[in-house]
Amino acid sequence: MRILVLGGTVFLSRAVAAAAVARGHDVTAACRGASGPLPDGVRHVPLDRAAARPAEVDAAIGPRSGTAYDVVVDVARRPSWVRAAVSAVPAAHWVLVSTINVYPDTATPGGTPATLALRDPLTSDEDPADGPEAYGAMKVACEQTVQALTASASVVRPGLIVGPGDPSGRFTYWPARMARVAEGEPEVLAPGDPDDRVQVVDVRDLADWLVTLAEGRTVGTFDGTGPALTREALLLEVAAGVGVEPRLTWVGQEVLEAEEVQPWSGPRSLPLWLPLPEHAGMLDHDVSASLEAGLAVRPLAETARDTLTWLRTTPDAAVTGLTATEERSVLDAWHARTR
Fold it and tell me: The domain that contains 249 carries what CATH number?
């Protein structure tokens, strides 16, 4: 099968290209080639989607390129990029990587693509850094283009993608923090309640599944994340992967907010923690349909182990979250309140 990956050098798109080559497919990556090396065995077609006019996109990947693709995998978030690429390769099966940010409702647990409403589409190109609202609305527009104008399409809406190569540094915080247990910092600040629900997906598992959907030319819309589990189970799995036994100290939301701990990511944050109840459903989707469609997930301990290995061999790897000093300060504040 001839597979065109729009991207191919960073995180998920790179993992897709690698997985497709490993399964014997003829893989081409259309990208600038400036963000890192392509996996071995992937042919490179230079294409800067930010600068290319539609005619230039067509020349690079459309019929004039001399290659007819069976499948296109696209991770783009800008509607104009998707429109141009779809116009160039409409006869292929498309696998579009979207996002759970297409759903404005982040409060309802157990949501699925069949039960959750979508944001209104935003067809103009805006800065995704403006927030999840604009990002999600642009992805809705991308989905609609692919579903309306291609031969067939799989739309996958990932949640938090984790594992080696993660440029966000969110999940990476936890293997890095657990590693400090073995260095004399056994007390680990755990946010919220042990039974809070969370879910993630290893980038390699997601990539393998995207290739499976491509091979089957599967038509449908799916949430692309692993099954939900409790926050305590997640942290203990991470600890097991790192090979430590932490002492988890659960600090409630009121104290975290009083100590100005930020949710999700960024400076002074605790990654994977989100305020409740307004975000109780964001990391608690029902992914039964995705599992039935072939998504297979590895043990989270394996993801944590491999993420730590990657972190230790990648000096410039991103890690977000509390510093050791900030964590100690919050823990001290918690203990002072509970004496």
Answer: 3.90.25.10
